[in-house]
Design a protein that fits this description.
Order of helices and strands of chain A: EEEEHEEHHHEEHHEEH
Distance between the termini of chain A: 33 Å
Largest interface: A-B, 54 and 54 residues
Helix content of chain A: 40-55%
Low-confidence stretches of chain A: none
CATH architecture of the largest domain in chain A: Orthogonal Bundle
Structural class of chain A: alpha+beta
Oligomer: homodimer
Number of strands of chain A: 10
Shape of chain A: globular
Mean pLDDT of chain A: 95
Strand order of the largest sheet of chain A: 1-5-3-4
CATH class of the largest domain in chain A: Mainly Alpha
Chain lengths: 208, 208
DNA sequence: CGCTGCCTTGACACGCCTCAACGAGCGTGG
DNA sequence: CCACGCTCGTTGAGGCGTGTCAAGGCAGCG
């Protein structure tokens, strides 16, 4: 799929479950005021809408951020797997629980951290996730977001995103330009952001 | 359990899954700065930590807000159910997906709404949820939170919680004192808060 | 060449936080 | 029985963080 296209809209009851193979997508909501809130980013390996298999109706929309490769899996296939393969069901469930953990972290991050730490924390998370699926090398990874998108992720205005980024750059923690992130001083960034990846449950899946 | 006690702490790997029968509990995180963020409220009928059954380790803590009645279910029982009863697994999964939807709504709420609407939205949600489990009558329900707690839910300071509440009271939308909420003008409150309960997936479970 | 999208900057206003103090209710102990 | 200390709600003053508005620059592209 091309960049900036809706995979699914709020209220849909799609017949397929989507899985990101390549590229970047996001979950978002549009509020009555017209403002957008991005509530999750989906990277290769992430399911977009396992919700649908269970809940039926989407309570948010999903769109691509960049050109992406997306796999569609018929809902009936998922249903079948759930009925017959407890282990796979468990894995699916596991995936949604990790999503949930990430949401909690974002919520705490947004509610109780100053904007620079919040932003730093976000980049730490993306780095950890991208690295976990082999999409980061030497502190570098591709992140096709504009500053406006970032604002919708972090809940701040574009102007403030811009200024906060400049501060992180001046602190020599990271660079972000041309859709590429470069982590300059990983240790100091992690320390500054107070980043603890436990909520991502990356580990070696020993807990599954 | 008595009020204000931890059911589970971050990092625990408890042997039981907890279910709230009576009272109120919350999920929360303490940030390194010492600030608390409450990321969910658990009312009668809510599971506290199905996470544990799948993920193993808690990435947040859970505490009671009021005296509560809590049921403990051995983890092994849950495991057993998952292995042998796809329908029950599906129901558990359903529950965590609803939690997730609520988190997304809180996130959008916190990031992109002014504080008065955010607060109004929160009360709408609690009313809807309490009503759904028969804990609300005539626009009244019990909510054992202090203004400080509310601040940790909404991501604002106690002082600002206080002032925002006064505004909602002056608008004659609702009252909240002595741990009791009274919705004065439900229609106007819902309109003001731009509340749409779809994300709670209450319905009649037709989508399950 | 003139779009258009995105980043950047400045000025200004306001929302919200912090600090500080006070009052009301309430349980506890003298 | 009253004094005390606690928690919680309330208020005021002042300052900083962020949002808004507006303008300009730069690169890509038709």
């Amino acid at each position: 799929m091309r960049a900036r296209q809706d995979l699914i809209s709020e209220g849909d009851r799609p017949e397929h479950v989507h899985l990101v193979m390549e590229g970047l997508a996001c979950r978002y909501k549009i509020l009555p005021s017209g403002r957008r809130s991005i509530v999750a980013l989906l990277i290769p390996g992430d399911f977009c809408d396992l919700n649908v298999a269970i809940l039926g109706e989407m309570d948010h929309a999903i769109a691509t951020m960049s050109d992406s490769r997306i796999v569609q899996i018929p809902r009936s296939t998922i249903d079948e797997l759930i009925k017959t393969h407890p282990n796979i069901t468990r894995a699916f469930w596991w995936a949604t629980l990790v999503d949930e953990g990430t949401l909690r972290e974002w919520l705490a991050n947004m509610g109780r951290r100053p904007s620079d730490k919040q932003m730093a924390h976000f980049f730490c998370e993306m780095f950890a996730r991208m690295a976990a699926v082999g999409r980061a090398r030497k502190g570098r990874f591709f992140l096709p977001l504009t500053q406006e998108d970032l604002g919708d992720v972090l809940g701040m205005s574009t102007v403030h995103v811009n200024r906060t980024m400049q501060r992180l750059r001046e602190m020599e923690l990271l660079d972000f330009s041309d859709h590429e992130v470069l982590i300059r001083k990983p240790d100091r960034l992690i320390e500054f952001a107070e980043f603890d990846p436990n909520y991502l449950h990356l580990g070696f899946r020993e807990d599954a």
